[in-house]
Every structure is written in structure tokens, then in C-alpha cells.
Amino acid sequence: MNPTIIEANKKTKFLNLKELYNYRELLYLLTYRDFRAKYAQTVLGLFWGFLKPVLTLFVISIIFGRVVNVKTGSIPYPIFALSGMVGWSYFAAMLGMAGSSLIGSQAIIKKVYFPRLIVPIAKVGVSFVDYLITLLFLFIMLPIYGAPFTWKLIFIIPLTIWVILIGTSIGVWLSAMAIRFRDLLQISPIFVKLGYYVSPIVYPSSMVPEAYLPLYYINPMAGLIDLFRWATVGADFPSQYVGISMVVTLFLMISSVWAFNRVERKMADLL
Amino acid sequence: MADSIIKVDNISKQYKIGLTGDVDDFREAVSNYVRSFFQKKQVVQEKSNEIWALKDVSFDVKQGEVMGLVGKNGAGKSTLLKILSRITEPTEGRITIKGRVASLLEVGTGFHPELTGRENIFMNGSILGMKRAEIRAKFDEIVGFSGISKFIDTPVKRYSSGMYVRLAFAVAAHLDPEIMIIDEVLAVGDAEFQKKCLGKMHNISNQGGRTVLFVSHNMAAVNALCHRAILLEQGVKTFEGLTGQVVGKYLLTGDSGESDRCEWRAPEEEKDASLYLEYIRIKDSTHTTRGEFFSREEVFVEMEVVLREEMKDLKIGFDVKTLSYGMLFRTMCTDTDNLVDEGVTMKPGRYKLTAKIPRKVLNTNIYYITPRISIHRKKILLEKDYLISFRVIFELPNTTHLTTQRPGIISPVLEWHTATLQRESL
Lengths: 271, 426
Hints:
In chain A, about 70% of the residues lie in helices and about 0% in strands. By secondary structure, chain A is mainly alpha-helical. Chain A has one domain (about 45-270). The longest helix of chain A has 27 residues, at about 120-145. Chain A is globular. Chain B folds into two domains: about 5-15 and about 50-250, P-loop containing nucleotide triphosphate hydrolases (Rossmann fold, 3-Layer(aba) Sandwich); about 260-395, abc- transporter (atp binding component) like domain (Coagulation Factor XIII, Chain A, domain 1). Chain B is built from eight helices and 20 strands. In chain B, a hairpin with a 2-residue loop joins strand 8 (about 230-235) and strand 9 (about 235-240). In chain B, helix 3 packs across helix 4, helix 3 (about 115-125) packs across helix 5 and helix 4 packs across helix 5 (about 160-175). At the A-B interface, strand 1, helix 2, helix 6 and helix 13 of A face helix 1, helix 2, strand 4 and helix 3 of B. Strand 1 (about 5) of chain A pairs antiparallel with strand 4 (about 90-95) of chain B, so a sheet runs across the interface.
């Protein structure tokens, strides 16, 4: 076996996937722990995962569907909005939890060695169940509003992977920065709220003037939601500027690992 | 195959003290960041708000060796362990480790209150580096060792602190790595459990091949478990050698944490009384005030008493007590003259009374002195319970290495004579 070398200013691998794989059991356990902690001593437990999107959809449909009367073409408003909410709530949950994850786990970070990237990544698993529940809700609503089940639904799988990548990258970024600048944890919920409106959740992106579309799709969730909508409720395939969302995601992925690496070495000292 | 398993080469660690994360730090962070683009290596700056927790520490640990790491609080022991466990990076230097390391820096790392004991065993075991299959295989053993099998499926938040610690240690005790780094974790639990843990640690270190680096304030444990040891003082390695020698050196440096308790001086308010205790302290045969002794040494208790008026029937002395066994004995200054049932008459003045506790009698323990001054059978003038203390480490004469703690309240070294009554013809 190769000897372990500990050195000052050591050059480390950019992304040590092999090591992450070796620690997969820990990743699973951290997820399990968060999951159990979340639902410990609750009576309704998983049922909350169901209640939340139902109530939100109800309110959104009335306000934006009827009162504000957003036009969504041939797609009934409730499933239009729901198809946007599914991806967004998963993203928001991942981001919310990942941001403070390192700070929250400082006890074990200061006492044990393990690849620290596992900590924010573990937040993917905890909210995945809620995501599945909301997705199930969507599948129930589709036939109710007469939307057919098409072959395009298979795209949900790559799209799920995409939303995980977006949520994790930004989450990793946030967790790395938040160690030094805790204000970010106060600021990020505000940005998430604003992001909700900058994304085509309660309104279609067709309402955005063409000239602004490239700018609009810099928000990677915009591209994701539009594609998701196309795959599930039969919306039109979005404009080619969706590609910008994908490029931005790639950039976020690489830069988040870079930012994390920079902080990882000093993490135990800074926390 | 006595190869170096752990090779530490000039390790240094610098820390910034004071606030971090404020505006100055941000500006500094940005300017450092910009500067780092123009420099290959990060420049280490000497500034007044930075300290060296470790400086140029080097040593080797051979395979199968149990190395002790001693030093008073703040010497840098935990920092060194953190660097060896890859939790924090060294500022300078290099370490080479050949083999899988398991670090036990804290008992119960990763325990979550909402999870049951069973779930926490898997959680903690995994954090410490055990694979799921390994934990499953050792599960019954772990539960057995902890002694809390009845509560294994209750959330840990319902456990008493003793149960918590027993479970946490049980998991840690079943780690099976090639190299183990242990920090002070024996300082938990009640006396009986501690004995169990020491026993288990002994097994771990004896069963061949395992290399251990052990930090503790419990000199008896270090003496019992370690082959060699290192002494750290203020971040620098000052001594290295056989455990007995290093422990001896550590105790004699006088500031091993017990020294502040081996002496007491009267505060001004007490000096108004017609009789008072000016000071009481523990000394060795060279008249040095000390708090720790080997059992081969004589321990002197010195009291200075001031009288402002003549007193009759005085009894001046002290009780020796321990936490584990209660009171050991009472001694009075009149014992020497066989005046068991009488006190002395003393005229006004300042007196120094010295008692000698004989060598080769006391066992490994912490001994508390309760000075007592009374008028024989009439009233107690002064009794200060657990006022000062001193530590003794039992060790047999003429050995410098491994000693085990003897069972028993005292451990007198007696003289034995063997007389051959009959020789067997073969």
C-alpha cells in the first residue's frame, strides 16, 4: 500500500472520486442520520412531504392562475405550476441544507478525517424523498387534468441528475464560503426567494422578451424547469438558449469543487 | 521488521490567535489571495498575533511500538495528533505513515441523540473508519462490552452520561486498524469502566503488530501501556526515551498540572486568629515543593503554624484521603513521642512541623491532605478538607520500563526471605 504523506502545502487531486467512493458508507449514514433526525418524534412524518406541495399548489393556482391570470396556453395552470415547483423545491431544499452543513458538522470535522465534500453532498439524499413525493403528486395530477403520459417522461431521469448537480454545486460553493463569511447564510435565503420569481415557475418563460432570454437562462434552474415542463406536461421545447443553463451548470460544478478544495485544508482550523 | 511506520519530520504548526472572520481578516484574505497568484509557495509570516503550537517536532514510531506522548495542557499534543489524523495541515514539515490509521480523539464522535444505541454504533463505527460488514460482525461483542444491551434500541438522548460513554468507548475499543492514535479518551467513565478500558487497551497494544500513539495525562496508564514516550513542552520536543524515564522527567518538571495543588498559603483574613495555619506544602527529600512522586521516594508534608497565645492539649496533624478509598490514615505530630492520648502544650510563636511519609508504601493514586488542628477531645480548631494533594506512581525499584498498577489500597514493598528446607535429589 502506498504510504500516506502529510505535508504542508501539499498538492491534492482536484476531485478524488476514488476516495469519495471509499467513504460511500459514511455518505449513506450521514443521509440516514439527517433523515431520522428530521422525522423523529413527528406523527405525520412523511405525510408532510405530501402536504406541503399540495397546499402551495392550491394557493399558487388561485393567486397566479385565477387572480393574476397568467396565461399558460393549452396547459392547465395547476399542472403548469406544479411541474415547475417539483424541481425548484428540491433545489431549494438542497441549497438550504448544504449551506450550513459544514458548520453544522464541525464536531466530526474537527475530530475525524474523511473527505469533507461528503457533508454537503449528503444533503442530496435527505430531500430526495420529498422530491419523489412531489413527483408522485405530479403523476397523480397529470391524468386529472387530462395530460397524457408520454415517452418524454423518461427525461425526468437525466433532469433529476441535472437538478442535483445544480443544487449540489451551489450548495458546495455556499458551504465553503459560509465558513469564513457567515453572513452568506443570512443572505442566501433571500436570493433563493428572489430566484423563485426569476425562474419560470409560476409563469412561462415565453413571457420573457426574446432579447433577454440569454440573460434569463444564466439562471440554470430556468433551463431545467423549462425542459422539465416539456418532458412532463407537454410544453413547447424551450429556445436554444437553454444551452446556456447547461454551460452555467458545468461551470458551477467545476468552480465549486475548486472553491471547496481551497477551504478544505484549513477547514478544521476555521470552524 | 522494525521499520518506521510513522516518520515525523520537522513538523511545525502556526496558528493565528484572536478573532477570525472579521473585516480585517477579510481584507487580509483578499490580499493574501491576490498575492498567492504571484507566489509559488505560501509565505509564512511572523506576526505578533500568530503563535507556533508546534515547532520542528521530529520522531519515529516503529512497527508494533506503543509510543506515549506526554506534556502539560497546551504543550501541543492534541495539535500533533490532529495533524497526524489529517484533520489539520502542518505549516511546515512532512509526515510519512505506512498503513491505515484510526484516530480516536474523542469518545462518541458523530453520535446523534435521536438515533438509537444500535444506530449510533454503526454511525460512530463508520466515522471511525470501520466498514459496515466489520461492525455487523463485531456488533454483539461491542454491545457486550458496553454493558447496556437492554437499552440498545432506545434513542441515545435518553442515556445517562455514563451509559453514553460506555457505548462510545465500546465501539472505539473494537477498532482494528494497523495504526491507532488515541487522545486522552481513557479519562471517562467510572473507576471500574476505566479499568476495563485500560485492560482492553493493553490487549490492543500487546496483540502483535499494532502501532499505537497514545496521549494521556494518566501517568500510570502511560507507564503501563507504552514502550517509549516523547515529552512535549510548549510545542517543542524536549525529551524522548523509555517511558519510565520520560514520565519521570515530566513529573519532575514540576508543572505537570498537579503542582498548584501541592501547596497552600493562608489568606490574610485567617491570620487574625490566635492560632492559624500559615502554609502547608508537599516536598521531596531535596526540599523542593512538588506534586508528583514515584513510590520509591519519601514524601514530606510541611506545615507552618502560628500561635499568638499559649495553648494546651494541642493535636496538630493531617488526614490522608483518596477519592477511590476514602480516608487512608490520620497522623498527628504527637505520634512520634507515643503520646496517643495527650496533646502538647505550645507557647506563642511560629513553628514548622514536618512529617515524613515513608517510601515504598503508597500505591498509584492521588492523595489529598486534610490538615487538622484540635484541642484533644475538646474541639477542632482547624480542619480543611482536601486542601492540597499529591500524586504517587507505584513502581518497583531498579526498573525503568513497564510497570503495572498493583491492586490494593496500599502497596508496601516488603522484605521476603526464602529458606530452603529440603533439597530434592533429582
